[in-house]
Inverse folding.
């Protein structure tokens, strides 16, 4: 390809929904060797749907879903929307929670009609000293389908499980092949469970998976790669991802995500899918050939 100027690159990028902050972001994009991507909303549609509800002891699955959804009314997480929507489609009336607290990267907790209710991953249950070991194995089948399983606890005891599926964007697999062809290694970092993450990554040919990571761990991963001599781009959509976006050589925000992610980024993808990263890399390479 012929070398192009930064202005031309920025213009072509903008036409394709790839917003480049400045020349430096473009130059850095040409030099990265590794891309870290968030799973939810980046590789997947970010529109999970409720697929399974399991109830323990003498509870019904409608009761488990009612408690989970009532709590999630207070949350803005994509998982919360899936659970609330799932309850609505089953015509379950939701009580109002008396209190509500979100725990980043883990889940939510609160009180409903005098009972304490919590919902989230294994780490969330650990936080509440609730042992999940006896049912972890039975969730493997769900997780191996790429579903996210969340525990529901009532008054400090396991009450059930809700699971959601978030389909992979149709463009993701092809974009990852293109990124590989452009010489980039692709690492997935997600707060989700290891098996769920591996199921999604495996079907996409992702090079490495870091699961169960908290926001500060995503930043630590960037730093770890830097220490090993890599140049890193990080793509993400959430408030959670802002520290890692800022630490990376190039932060790539999904325009469909949180404003704070956009503010921390050198490149913003309006369409919000990985094809934009392929395009940004090609533009960056074509420009760098010109300014070197
Ligand atoms: P990601 O890295 O995929 O964006 P998060 O860091 O937001 O994920 O969350 C990690 C995990 O914590 C989720 O997979 C889920 O199990 C749990 N979790 C987080 N927020 C909620 C919530 N509002 N309701 C239920 N579970 C949650
Ligand atoms: Mg996220």
């Amino acid at each position: 390809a012929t070398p192009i100027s930064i202005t031309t690159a920025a213009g072509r990028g903008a036409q394709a929904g790839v917003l480049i902050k400045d020349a430096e972001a473009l130059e850095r994009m040409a030099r990265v060797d590794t891309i870290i991507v968030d799973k939810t909303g980046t590789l997947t549609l970010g529109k999970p749907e409720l697929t399974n509800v399991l109830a323990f002891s003498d509870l019904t699955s409608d009761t488990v879903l009612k408690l989970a959804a009532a709590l999630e009314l207070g949350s803005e997480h994509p998982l919360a929307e899936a659970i609330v929507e799932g309850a609505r489609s089953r015509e379950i009336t939701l009580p109002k929670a008396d209190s509500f607290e979100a725990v980043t990267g883990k889940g939510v907790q609160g009180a409903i009609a005098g009972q304490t209710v919590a919902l989230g991953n294994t780490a969330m249950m650990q936080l509440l000293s609730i042992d999940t070991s006896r049912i972890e194995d039975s969730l493997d089948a769900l997780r191996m389908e790429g579903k996210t399983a969340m525990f529901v606890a009532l008054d400090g005891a396991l009450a059930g499980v809700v699971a959601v599926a978030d389909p992979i964007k149709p463009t993701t697999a092809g974009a990852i092949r293109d990124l590989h062809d452009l010489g980039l290694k692709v690492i997935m970092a997600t707060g989700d469970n290891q098996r769920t993450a591996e199921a999604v990554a495996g079907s996409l040919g992702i090079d490495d998976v870091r699961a169960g990571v908290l926001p500060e761990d995503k930043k630590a991963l960037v730093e770890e790669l830097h220490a090993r001599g890599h140049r890193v781009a990080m793509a993400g959509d959430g408030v959670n991802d802002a520290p890692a976006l800022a630490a990376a050589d190039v932060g790539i925000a999904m325009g469909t995500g949180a404003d704070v992610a956009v503010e921390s980024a050198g490149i913003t993808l309006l369409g919000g899918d990985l094809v934009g990263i392929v395009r940004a890399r090609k533009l960056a390479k074509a420009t760098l050939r010109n300014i070197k």
Summary: The chain has a mean pLDDT of 93.
